[in-house]
Structures are given as C-alpha cells and as structure tokens.
Specification:
Radius of gyration: 15 Å
Order of helices and strands: HHHHHHH
Strand content: under 5%
Structural class: mainly alpha
Helix content: 55-70%
Number of domains: 1
Shape: globular
Number of strands: 0
Number of helices: 7
CATH topology: Four Helix Bundle (Hemerythrin (Met), subunit A)
CATH class: Mainly Alpha
CATH architecture: Up-down Bundle
CATH superfamily: Nucleotidyltransferases  domain 2
Distance between the termini: 26 Å
C-alpha cells in the first residue's frame, strides 16, 4: 500500500521515470479499488478512490514535467497548473471541473464526522458519474507521459 512518508525516504535514489512509475502503480491500484467500491455500492469510497487515483497520477506527471519533489498537497488543480504550460495538449474546462469536484472528496481519516456527512451526500448516480469521468480523465492523463 502507498505510504507518502515511506515514499519520500525511499524515492531519494530513484530517477524521474522510476518515480513516475511508482505513482502510476499506486494510481492504478486506486482506480481498481474505485471500481471494486462501485461494485460493492460504497459510493463515498468510489469518489474518494477516484480522487486518490487522479491525485497520484498527476503527482507522477508532476515528477516528469515540473520537479521530482512533489509538494505535499491533495489539490489536483494546483499540481496540474504547475506544469500545464509544458503539456502537449491543453487541460479542458471539463477536466478542471472534475479535478475541482474531486478535491471536495478527499477524506482525511481523522475526521470521522466529516466522513459520515459526506457518505450521506454521495449517492449512486453521482458516484457512477464521477467514476466514469475519472476513468476518462485517467486514460487521458496516461497519454501525457513523456
């Protein structure tokens, strides 16, 4: 399982491509988990894992396009804006809308009351829509690898 503290210590000796691959592996694992949560009807965790998958893939791209020392943030939009001028294609408004929406679904495990409120706010239709949009954004982000 992905551990940010462990990663930062371990990744010191990795080149940018290896760091990207590490982030990609973790992002792919999270996408598969989002699909599993969809199959089990755990809607909050569908959208949370979508957020995690996109965040990690964007952090992988950040290592390639910007700097291999990725900032400690969950803000996908902030990260992508740091290197979007180097991308071969522009990020669309629809993609930014998804990234902004996903930010709202980042769950800090320490805040169980927040998690409880969020689980009521996410219904099946919204979770399935976000999962489909995330699959599309994920596939597009994978095409941006240098």
């Amino acid at each position: 399982m992905f551990n940010g503290v462990y990663y930062r210590k371990w990744a010191v000796n990795l080149n940018k491509q290896e760091k990207y691959e590490y982030w990609l592996d973790s992002a792919e694992y999270d996408m598969e988990t989002a699909k599993a949560m969809d199959a089990s009807g755990r809607w909050l965790y569908v959208v949370f894992m979508c957020q995690q998958a996109i965040e990690k893939l964007v952090k992988g791209l950040y290592t390639l396009y910007a700097d291999d020392n990725v900032p400690k943030t969950h803000n996908i939009t902030f990260l992508i804006r740091e290197f979007e001028n180097k991308l071969p294609v522009a990020v669309t408004e629809e993609q930014y809308d998804l990234f902004i929406k996903l930010r709202a679904f980042y769950i800090n495990g320490r805040y169980t009351d927040f998690k409880r409120k969020m689980s009521v706010a996410v219904n099946e239709k919204e979770a399935k829509t976000i999962l489909q949009q995330t699959k599309e954004a994920f596939a597009w982000l994978q095409t941006l690898k240098l």
